[in-house]
Design goal:
By secondary structure, the protein is of the alpha+beta class. The protein contains eleven helices and seven strands. The chain is rod-shaped.
Length: about 350
């Protein structure tokens, strides 16, 4: 889920508010002996923690906005390291200035003689021990928090890109129904019209239903299995019209309840039967198609006779189908092709929802 800009700001405010409470709690209940600390009121302690937190916040955003992009670039990593050291040192100096010239006068305690600016610049030991170490350690949680959020964002964007790529690939595969089927069907309809056959109108109606399904009703990720079966029936009827009496088709199907299925998942099997069965033979051709949907599983067994040596699985037919199955049901489907005794059989099992 993408965060709106306002929500991002709120998330950052809440993060630093929590850190402030943690720092203040540790400061108040720390049991180490420190005489100055016991002289402070809760207000003084809160103000002290606030000044320290300002330095931590500055170091945090400087690190994630300015330094991290350099550190993630191998060519810029040295520059990033230099900028990190210089930036933390400057933040430590500014923090020391604010403590000496703003915080200590407000607190009004006995902090000794006020150092000059040149003295503060030269107090490397004090800066390192009391400022740099605490600022860096304080900024680490935010840097880690930022990296985790950024990692989630990158993973989400990669997942969306991958999803779009898969969707586009599926659309391409889904659209690769052999166009010569439609051309042959139109030619047959033309012949029927010339002959003024009574089958002209019913054939046009089947073709219109098929095109309506292809163009408008199978754009969703899943469609009704019943609609897919009706599409296959129209597809088979139009194919039989082309080959006439020499093609016999047995199409049996049963379902135990309504299911949905990815659209056009079954038609490559039927198309393969026409391409490598009916189109490759000159004599009688028989199609047997048995489809059973039960217990959330679909089983399709399709057989046809063929001429040995002519039936080759190539082009966009079953290889197209296998690519779609790999994307849709990786590791959860069965696709078997068997050639035996001039019979070509395709068996497919896929899960249903």
């Amino acid at each position: 889920m993408k965060l709106k800009k306002e929500n991002k700001y709120l998330l950052h405010i809440l993060f630093w508010l929590v850190i402030y409470i943690v720092y203040l709690t540790q400061y108040i209940f720390n049991e180490r002996s420190d005489t100055l600390r016991h002289e402070f009121s809760t207000y003084d302690r809160g103000l002290t923690v606030f000044f320290h937190l300002l330095a931590v916040i500055a170091a945090s955003y400087f690190s994630v906005i300015r330094v991290l992009p350099f550190l993630f670039d191998k060519k810029q990593i040295i520059r990033g390291g230099i900028e990190l050291c210089v930036g933390i040192y400057i933040i430590a100096i500014l923090s020391r200035f604010s403590v000496v010239y703003i915080l200590e006068p407000i607190l009004g305690g006995n902090f000794g003689e006020q150092e000059s600016i040149l003295q503060i610049l030269g107090q490397l030991a004090i800066l390192f021990k009391y400022y740099i170490i605490s600022i860096v350690s304080g900024a680490l949680p935010f840097i880690i928090f930022h990296l985790l959020i950024d990692r989630q964002r990158i993973m989400r964007e990669q997942a969306e890109i991958e999803k779009e790529k898969i969707s586009a690939r599926l659309d391409v595969l889904k659209a690769q129904i052999n166009p010569h089927f439609l051309f042959n069907t139109l030619n047959n309809i033309y012949s029927l019209a010339v002959q003024q056959s009574t089958e002209t109108a019913p054939t046009i109606d089947r073709l219109s239903q098929l095109l309506d399904y292809l163009l408008y009703r199978c754009n969703a990720n899943y469609v009704s299995l019943d609609n897919e079966i009706q599409f296959l029936r129209n597809y088979l009827d139009l194919g039989k019209m082309r080959f006439g009496n020499r093609l016999s088709i047995q199409f049996l199907h049963e379902t135990d309840r309504p299911y949905t299925i990815p659209p056009l998942l079954l038609v490559p099997v039927i198309e393969n039967m026409f391409k490598h069965g009916a189109e490759q033979t000159t004599g009688p051709t028989a199609f047997s198609i048995r489809l059973k949907a039960e217990n959330n599983q679909l089983t399709l067994i399709a057989t046809n006779n063929f001429i040995p040596g002519e039936n080759k699985v190539s082009g966009i037919g079953l290889s197209n189908l296998k690519q779609r199955l790999d994307i849709l049901f990786p590791g959860h489907y069965i696709l078997k092709v068997v050639e035996k005794n001039e019979i070509f059989e395709v068996k497919m099992q896929v899960p249903l929802v």
